[in-house]
Every structure is written in structure tokens, then in C-alpha cells.
Design a protein that fits this description.
homotetramer, alpha/beta, eight-stranded parallel beta sheet, two-stranded antiparallel ribbon, 10 strands, 10% strand
């Protein structure tokens, strides 16, 4: 177990037993906006190419009150690093990218007494229908590095198919580390028609200590899914810890596959970004459901994590994170504003009740999601080393 | 003059004469979200307290293609640092804060061949009606430090009253450096009823080499103001360079005083954040009007500045910034995406025509601005060292 | 049986067996806007006070292609005519009001070869918890008049509780006339928690020949409810004819009790009014589900009924109603418009795909419904002869 | 002069001098929805074909408090009746249509002590550029009938070009009757670039006793235009009575040519329909500007006119129209409603402050108007007897 200042760090399961664990936020969207990650392949090689940028973002989440630094290893399996024209595996190797991610997460976690979580996610190998052995082989390559770095616990996240996450949990359990497992599903369940409740039960039965949902849906839709998971787990008399790390984008109009299907994904999601007040509401509701690991995924910036920390300050023994030194709660910092009508906004009921306008009179409030009804095994989803051609795009656009 | 690799840097006026200068983005909003700045006083002491965070943001803007690093000295005049309960002047002194800002801007600018601009902005002293001498004394304290650091040019920005910016320009001109001057006004002109055109003429007559608008309004509303400025300057046969650094928040519903009056300011502006495509459209329109200094203010994140750089790449001799290595233009990076319907979005016409939904069916598209019709000299706007009390907030809230 | 031109009219069940029956539209909202009916008590005494206005509306629906004239006897039970300050029973007597309604419906139906349906609806007596006998006594008073006038069939509509509609059907069946029964419920079922499917099964088992939904929800939400009804009926091997008469107001945001709970009810529903194109889409979907009696309720104006008739023209043997002489389908009449860009709208794909803007930038697209969770038997719902006092309104407003 | 009960009716100018004149509402849109008028040519031959429907609508407006019955003679000039495939002139003759309109307006006006106004409007002859003599010849044919019927005053309305309305006024003045003149323009002025203020001055100088705006824009945009008219008239020391008859559709997004350019015109304007509360606000503002003739145009249903009457009841000596017997002011009729939360809406502040939702999450709040920038004289606007062909529509659609 990692140590800070000589004293052994309390593990994730003990922390969950005793209180709330605040997760960190999303790396790929934040680093894309900062200029270090490419949307589409969501290039995890930033850990090698620009460690200072990844380190700074880790620090900001820790300042915001996160208890965990997740290694920035999303989509960093070798098969993904080689997919559709990406060449990161050739240039850097997956091993080097994953090692750099461990270095950065550990460095910052150690500064702040945080835990390090090593994360794996769904693979093109699974979507291409190559079977259990091939898929687990991909997972093992990343996990080997996590174990060599003695990270604190393991996380399988962003799985659309319960079968694949079961395979992942199986491999993660071999390590003896605590295992968390999250699917990127909504209340309707996984891509193969397995209900959200059944997914939770299967993850718990596969051995996950912590079970939940991440990404793909907004905070409140994710909580709807979590309620279904909890009900099914309770019914099955299974009691893993519950975890949720939603988008910080409002997606009431997303269908089964979430925000990826929305026409705004990924380059025009701005009007959907959650305010800090919406995140505080989410944190409170999540806690009331009984969820104890509460963090964020794509769209969660440091101030969103700070909002979680502030909302659950009492539940965390009065703890306020460093970042709150620059954030008087409920807008009280506005008491220092020049304009008197802005000073009048320095109060909780103002922000709690505001329905923020979009400033976009030519936009609608909801979109019809794209959804071509293709899922694992379908030809269009198969792994492919070559880049997509212009002709292929034209054909897709004409659909 | 600063130097890079032995060769003298080309000055701002020469760059404007020969092509386009891309400005950087907004520091206070970006650093508030990252946890280093408090909304309300917009605490510039971050330069002293967290230089690594300020440095990182400078770097991101340079990677995004900015030609200029503005010192992070907004609201860093001594009078402001002491206003309404803020104590930064006591803790750090304005001098130290301004010096640290120069150090950080110069460090990063030198890495990237960029210019350093020393910025001053409107003062509580002016709003409190203390007269020209007192106001100019505030300006001189900041300017002294800029000159000691031999920054490349000076910028007076965020002025609501043309009178105050004239006083600022007068002081800046004493230094012999090139002078840029921006007011935070819209097409309706300044707070005392001076038209936008007249404001431009007065700034030019006061000696500003570069004249324009920053903050308070969205890109397209700012350009409306710029069109009025240009028309009035042309009519007066005055030909300063034109500059614009708008918000990256859509504000079609703001009235004379801009986004500050909108109920969402400053903690629920998310749905108004501009997409990169909106910023590209802005950059093109700005260039076509004849504006040659194009940057951003509050809300402009690094990817917004990158959008300006990409849109004007041809005009800058084919130059694409470092940050564009992680950004295929017009969404082409989506050709690597797993889902075929997302690959279908890898084309210009898709993003150019999208009207992004808000995901907020309970929000309207526009807000009625607050606006209490008080301006410079009014009692409620006067400088005040003490913090606002809870009773005062209650009285304001009841208005 | 009534006759037209000597030949006996084909009955409603035969018409349904052989094809489509188009119902008429809503009287209370249309006549309120024309100045003859008061919102709240929805005063059916208009049949006595202004027969020319009721007759004209009947005629417009027949011109629009309706096969049925419903007697304007909604809320014309004696107990309702005496409720909460209404005095119509004293002034006119329920008997006279119902007789006048029969006269008007028969007069116009005979002009156009239409059927007359005698309609009853839910009673304050039921909401006040006065029991089966008292409720059925109310029904019998209206039915007696329908039978004396030998109307063609009977319709129990606008029931929120399946128990009350069962009592109604029982009484209607005593007459030997064909019986239609409609509840004003959505996909969530009745106010006592009985599912939509179960409601349909119970109405069919009680003896209704025609079963369905009217009022309270928009066309597409009603069809969702109808799909559930059909599935449950099929499963129970019950095969009554299906009928739907929805609102012509869009209510995606309504909860269990429908549009009454929406803040806009009843005086600010304008932005929710369906276009003719939305109604055509509804008529097509309803037909495809297998519904054969398709009409409208509140908000349905004559042009909405014409839209149903035009959409189902082929299914009705090529029949186009008289009103279509003044309505070229799919906007083709615009070929005669002066402005060329309006002539460009003279085509189906234009209107079919248009998402009409609200012209209301300060309005949201959805509302949070009021819903106090009180239902039959609750004190606040009890019948009360006296008018509500100002104090009572103040107390309600403060909730 | 017509008489009621033996006493001579007070003329329109005397009524305006002494108080407020309430106009009637729009016939073409209301009768289109009722099934008697075709959108596009807006077939005025309804007066001959279905007098009972036109008479009923007249009666409803009188019940709603209208002081004037306008003859339903919009677009009833011979040249319009023959335009683009319309054949009404051949079938019925313009003379017969206009005579029937006079009969109906007089019949109902006499029942209610109202005035009859004979109305003419812009002509295809003018748009085709055929010159003053030809245009005035068209006007004279209609006016001749009005005079033969001794109507009370004359109204030239719905003119887009001030030149044409001047020609109209010239002809109307020959009759010796009081003359009202309205243009269908907004604050930007007429189609040839003449400002709204200048248009008003020219109408007054041409001899109009009553000057104003009708149609094309929403109530509040029309009032903006009226403010400009009043300012210019005051400046020119001209003092005609002021008149306004706006749309009952919200059009904040319409450009110079008004609602015709909006994509929703004319078959999907429903979400833009004004509520009664918006009309009351309009009536109050109109009165405060000094406008004394206040009515409505397209979209104004009887209940909208009733709202004008109720709002100005005090100014009309406490008069409430017959239709108000079925309309307790400010929603007070809801005190009789069954549901307690609907009874809670029985108060003024509730309705006055409600921003009604659209129920349309896939619609935006504003539209970009079509506007091809063609005006009088342009080939595409020329009169044409033949119907538009399908090919011509295809060509227009492709623009």
C-alpha cells in the first residue's frame, strides 16, 4: 500500500465504509479544450507528450477535494491506440503511456493524501467480436503496469456491454486489489438489452466491490439508473458500495447510447454544460440514494468537483478543499462585487432556483438523437487500423 | 525590447501593419473554474499564490496560437485590491502581484516568441468620483512596474466610461510604448451616454494606437459595436488599428451594461458558452470588418483562441498553432471515432450549420437583464473597504 | 333510428366495422374563445342561451368531415350545474340544457348524414365520495333525455377513475344503444393507480363497445396510452373498437393528471396549440395502431378535424369534406400567394419537417406541472354549492 | 347616416374625440380555421358563399366589445380576385362580394349600435407597377359600393408602400366620409425605405383623419412603430387620431416584411398566438401612447378583442361587453374549478407574470425570416392570372 508521510493511507473500501469518497473529474474533455488531447481517439499519449498539463489537471482536482487520482489511461489499451489511423502505439507504446500515467497520478496523489486508481475501459477487440481471451489479454497488459506501480485500487469503467465488464472484473480480481466497476449505461440498461438492475447484479456477482455508472448521461439520468441498480442489488441481497461518475452535460433527450448519439457530440455540447448548482443538487441526491463514491466524468471541470465537495462538506466532517479558499459558498463572494444588483445575488435561494437561459434563441432545448441501432459485432463497429477515408465519410453523411 | 533567440521581436504595431495579431483569452473565468480565482473580486493575487496555474494557462493560450501574453493584472490596482473586504493589498501588496504577473507573462512569451502586454483597467477610485488626479495615480503605480519590466506594449481595457479611458491613455502615452485601448461597451455606447463611435474617436484622439472593445458582450454584439466605431473613425479620418476581445458567452439579451446584468452572471453562464464554430464565424467576420487584433475575454478558453488561429490560418501565412496538432479542423478527428454516426459528423457543413440544443427544457432562451440604472458617482457604486454585510444583501435582494 | 333522405343511417358500430369514423372537436375551449362559455364551470347552458353559436360550431365540424355530432352536454349533470357558485341548474334546469343540446346536435347531424352521440362525463358526486347509487342517479337524468330524443349512440367520456366509468357504462348499457367509453388518462393510468391497460380491460368487460381515451393529454401521449390499452385488450382477448379524442395542445411535460396541472391551464395554452400538420401525423399513427374512431377534444378547432379527414381521405374512400374546398392539401393554396418565398412553401416536405418557433424567447419549452396529489374523496375536491371566497384563494395561492 | 333605435349613431371621429374605439379582429385567419376561407388568396367570396359564417364572426366581435364592423372586403379588389389561378371574380364578381360584405357588416352593426367601416387594401396592380390611374381605378370600384351602402367611414389598410396608400387616401377623401389609413409596416418603415415616422406624416398630409399600423407584426412591435409615427407627427405638428390593429402572433424575430417572411407563415403560427394577458398588456400600452382606435388583425379571435375591451373598461365608462358575462376578469372564473391548484390560479398576478411554455422541446424560440429582398416592380411579384405550376414551385423551393 502506498504511504504518505510515513502513515499508511486508508484504503478505498475503508473510506467508503466510514464516509464519502469524492472522485475526480473528466480528463479527455478538459484536456481537449486545453489543447492536449484529440477528440475522437481521445489520445491518452498526453501523459508522455505533455506531462505538465496532465499533472496540472490532477492538481486542480485534488485542490477541488477529490480523494482519488485516476490514472489518465482511458482508451490506452494497445488495440485502441492502433485503431482507425491512430499511431500512438507505434510512436510511444501503450506500456510507456500507461507508465507515465501512473507516475503522474502517484506524484499528485502523494502530495494530497489521495488514492490512486488504475483504470481500464472497453476495447475495440470486444466490439470487433474477437472473444474473451483476446479481450482479457488487452486488459492484462494495462493491469500489469498498474500492479508494478502498486496503485491503490482498480477501476473498470465505461463499458456498454455487461459481458465485457464481467470479463474485466474477472481479470482485475486476480490482482487482489479492491475492484470498482462502472458501466456507461442509463436507466434502459446495456446495449444488448440487459436491464440496469441486472447489470449491477452481474457486476457484483463477478466480484466488484464497488458498482455503478459513469459517463454517457447527465447527473440526474445517471441517478435514475443508479436507483434501478440499487433496487435490483437490494432484491438480490447484494451490497457492494455504490459509485456514480456522470457527465457534466445535460442530456434529458439522449436515448439508450447516451450523449454520443446527440448531434452536439462532441464539439457543440457547450449549452448543455452543468452549472455548479446543478452539480450540488446531484451530489445531494446521490448521497441520499446511498451512493458513497461520487465523482464526475466528461465535462466535469475542477469547479464541478469542488461543488461536490462543498455540498458534502458536512458529511466529510466539515472538510472544505483548498480550492474553496477561492469560492465563498452559494455565491457569497459576490458581496465584494461593484454592482449592487450583482451583490443582491449573493445568496443561496437565488442560485438554487435560477433556470439559466441559453442565450440561443435559434436553438431548441432538446435534440433528436442519432442512433443507427448497431452494436457489438456489427461490421461498422469493427476495429480497423487504417484511417477512415473521405469517401467513407461521404457515404456515412448521406445516411 | 525583449528578444528571442537573439533576433529582436517584431513590435505589435509592425505585426498589425503586416497581418493579424491573435490575442489570448480570459484569465479570471478560466482560473475561477480551475480553483485559483474568486469570482467577485477576481483576485489577481493568483500570480503570487499559484504561479504554476497562471503559467500553465499562459502556455495553453500560446499553444493555441496567441501572439500576445497579457499580464494577469486585471483589477490589480491598489484601490481595487482593498475594496469591499478584499485584503490582497495588505497580504501581498499590489506591487508584488503586478511584478509576479510580469514575470509569468514574460517567461512564457519568451518561450513562444510572443509579445507581452501590460494591462490596466477601470478603478473603484473613478466610480467613487474621486477625480482625475487620484485615478491617474492608481494607473501610474501599475505602469511603473510594467516599464521596469520593459514589457512590449500597454493596454487599457475594460472601461465603461470614455472619460476614464482617456485619462488612462494619457498616462500610458507618457511611457513611449505603443498603446491599445478597449472599452467594455456595446453598440449603445458608454455608461454616460457617449455613443460607441464617439468613444472610438475620443480614444484615438487621446493617442491610442489601437482602439476597440473587450468583454461585456458576445462576439457578434461586440462586432456590431466595432462597426459603429469603424464608421465614426473613418468619418473623422482617424485610422488606429482595430482590436476586439469579446466574451465567449452568447448575450443577445444583454442591455447596455452587458453580461453583468444578466441573471446568470457569473455562476450560471454555462448554457451561453460559445462553441468553437461560433468563434470561427466571429473571427472571420472580425477580419472582414478590418479588425486586425482579434482575441478573447471572459469565457475564452484555449480552444476558443485555437479556433481564431485556425480560422485565420491562411491570413497568417498558413500558420497553425501547436495546439492544432490535437485538433483536426472541422471535426475531421471524428473519422477515428468508433460509432459510424459520429464519423458522419467529420465534415465542415455539419458543424457550421448545427444549432446546438441546451438540454434544458425548463429554461428560456433569453433573460431579462437586471439594470438598476446607477452609474459612476452613485452612492451604491462607491468604493468601500469593509465587506458587505448580510443585512445589506437582504436589502438588495428585496429590491 | 334517425333517418336522412329516407334511407336509414348506418350505425356507429357498422361504420367502425367498415372503415373510419371521424369524431368532432372540442366545444368548451372553442366556445370560450368565441365568448359563449365560461372557463372553470365550462357552462353548457350555452345551448339554451346561444343556440346559434353552438349550431354554427356543429356545422363547422360537419363541414370539416366529422361523422358524429356529440351533444354539447359536457359537465351538464345537475350536480355539476350547481357546484361552487354556478347557478345554471336554478336558472335553466339541467333537463332544458340537455334537451337543447339534443335539438342542436340532431338538427345539424341530419343536415349532414351524421350520427348523434349523447355524452355524459364524470360527476362532482363521485369526487365527493357519495357512492354508486348517487352517481348513477346523476347519469340517469341525462340519459333519459338522450333516449327520449332517440340519439344514435351513447358516450361516457372524461373519467379519471375507472370505477366511475364502470358505473356509467352499466347505466348506459341498460338503454340497448351502442356504448363508447373514454377515460381522460395517460400512459400512467387512472388516479387510483389502475394501469391504462387494466382500465381498458375493465371498460370492455363492463360492456363498452368502443373503448379509448379523450382529453387531458396531447395526441402523441394519448397514443402512447392507447398502445398500452390495445396490448392489454389483446392479451385479454377482448376486441372492442378503439377510439381516441386527444387535446390539440402539446403536453410532453404533463404528469399523471394531464394539462390541468400545467401552469398554463386554461388561459395561456396558446403556444401549445397543435398545427394541422401535427394533427395529420397523429391521425396517421392512430390509424396504424388500429384505432378506428378518431376525433378531438379541447383545443380541436374545425381545421384540426379537417386535417384528420384529409389525412384519412384514402381510407374513407377518397372522401374529402366540404371544408377542404377552401384548403388545398399540404399548403398548395400558397401557389397563389404574392410573395415568391411563400409560394416556395407550397409543398408537403416543407410543412412536414418544420419545427415551429414559439416567438417567445423568454418562455421555456416545458413547465413543471402543479400536482397536489389529491384525488377522489379528498376534502379539497368535495362538491360545494357556494362560490370560493377570496380568502380561500389566498390560502390556495400561498401553497 | 345609419341609425339605431331612432337615435343617430355617433360617428367615428366623435367617438375618438370622446374616448376609445375598439376595433374588431381578423377575419381571414379565423375563417380559414373555421373552414370558409382559403389561405393564400384569402378568398373574400365567403360573404357570398357562406354568409352565416361571416355573420356569426361579426356577432362574436360585437359581443366582445367591438365598436366597429369592418366589411370583410380584404383583397376583394377585382384584380386580386383574378390573380394566380383564383377565379372568384368570374364566379361571383367583385361587386357582388363587396355588396354581400356590406349587407353582413351593416346587419350586425345595426344590432349592436356599431359603426360600419368599408375597407380597401393594397393591390396586385400596384405591385405589378401599373401606375396611379390603374391602381385608383381598382379602389374606386370597391368604394362605389361602400358609398351606395352609406357605410360610416372608410379604411385603407394593409399597405406596404406609402405611395400606394397616399393614392388610396386621395380617392377615399373624394367621398367626404371620415378616412382611416393603416400601413402594414414595422418600426423600420415601408418597403421602399421610407421611415415609419415619414409614412405617418405622409398619410396625414394626404388627408387621413386616422393614421396607424395594422397586421404584419406582433402587438409590441407594432407599438414600437406607432411610437415612431407619433413622434414624427408631433414634430410635424400634425394631429390625426392614432390607430393600431396588430397581429395576435408574437413576431420578435420578423424582419422588415413581417410575419409573412417567418417560416411558420401561414400554417404553423400556432405557438406564436398571443394569450389574452398579452393582449391586455398591449391594450394598456397602446392607450398610454395616446392611441384611441385599438383593434386587431390576423390572429385576433373574439376573446382577444374582449381582452382589449376588459382592459379599457374604465376608460370606456365602465362598459363591459356581453361576452364578459362568460369571462370573469383575471381568471376569477377558476374559483369554480374542481382542482384546488387550479382555483389557486384565480388571481391577476398569476396570469400577469406567467411566461407560457411552448410544449415543444424540439422547437427554437425564434426563426430566421425568409426575405428575398424583392419589392414592388420586381418580376416575381407581378400579377399573373394563371396558377403557379409545379415546376415553378420546385424552382422556388430550390432557392
Amino acid at each position: 500500500m502506498s504511504e504518505t508521510n510515513g502513515a499508511p493511507k486508508k484504503g478505498v473500501l475503508e473510506r467508503l465504509r466510514d464516509g464519502v469518497v469524492v472522485g475526480d473529474g473528466g480528463f479527455v474533455f478538459a484536456l481537449e479544450k486545453r489543447g492536449y488531447v484529440k477528440a475522437g481517439p481521445w489520445t491518452p499519449e498526453a501523459t508522455v507528450e505533455h506531462p505538465e498539463a496532465v499533472r496540472q489537471l490532477h492538481r486542480e482536482f485534488v485542490r477541488a477535494g477529490a480523494d482519488v487520482c485516476q490514472t489518465f489511461t482511458f482508451y490506452a489499451s494497445d488495440d485502441k491506440l492502433d485503431n482507425r489511423g491512430n499511431q500512438a502505439n507505434k510512436t510511444h507504446t501503450g506500456a510507456k503511456i500507461n507508465q507515465a500515467a501512473c507516475d503522474l497520478a502517484k506524484e499528485v496523489a502523494n502530495e494530497g493524501g489521495c488514492l490512486v486508481a488504475g483504470g481500464i475501459s472497453q476495447t475495440p477487440t470486444y466490439l470487433s467480436g474477437k472473444g474473451k481471451e483476446a479481450v482479457q489479454a488487452e486488459f492484462r497488459k494495462q493491469i500489469k503496469i498498474f500492479i508494478a506501480n502498486n496503485i491503490d485500487f482498480l477501476l473498470a469503467e465505461y463499458y456498454e456491454h455487461v459481458e465485457e465488464v464481467e470479463w474485466a472484473i474477472e481479470v482485475l480480481k486476480e490482482t487482489g486489489k479492491p475492484v470498482a466497476a462502472n458501466m456507461c449505461i442509463g436507466p434502459e440498461g446495456d446495449m444488448h438489452g440487459v436491464s440496469a438492475g441486472e447489470c449491477a447484479v452481474r457486476m457484483a456477482r463477478a466480484g466488484a466491490d464497488i458498482v455503478g455508472i459513469n459517463c454517457h448521461f447527465d447527473p440526474f439520468v445517471c441517478l435514475e439508473g443508479m436507483r434501478k441498480m440499487k433496487a435490483a442489488l437490494d432484491k438480490a441481497d447484494l451490497h457492494p458500495y455504490l459509485m456514480v461518475q456522470p457527465l457534466a452535460f445535460m442530456t434529458p433527450d439522449a436515448s439508450k447510447q447516451g450523449f454520443i448519439d446527440l448531434p452536439e457530440f462532441p464539439f457543440a455540447l457547450e449549452p448543455r454544460i452543468c452549472s455548479r448548482w446543478e452539480i450540488m443538487k446531484f451530489a445531494r441526491e446521490a448521497y441520499e440514494i446511498g451512493i458513497r463514491y461520487i465523482g464526475g466524468c466528461c465535462g466535469f471541470e475542477p469547479y464541478h468537483i469542488r461543488a461536490v465537495s462543498e455540498e458534502l462538506s458536512k458529511e466529510r466532517g466539515g472538510f472544505l478543499p483548498e480550492g474553496s479558499q477561492k469560492h465563498d459558498q452559494w455565491g457569497l463572494g459576490l458581496r465584494l462585487h461593484t454592482k449592487p444588483w450583482v451583490r443582491a445575488r449573493a445568496r443561496r435561494e437565488y442560485w438554487e432556483n435560477l433556470k439559466p437561459a441559453s442565450g440561443r434563441p435559434f436553438s431548441s432545448s432538446c435534440s433528436k438523437p442519432d442512433n443507427w441501432g448497431v452494436t457489438a459485432g456489427h461490421d461498422m463497429l469493427k476495429q480497423k487500423t487504417d484511417a477512415t477515408t473521405e469517401d467513407e465519410i461521404k457515404q456515412l453523411a448521406a445516411k
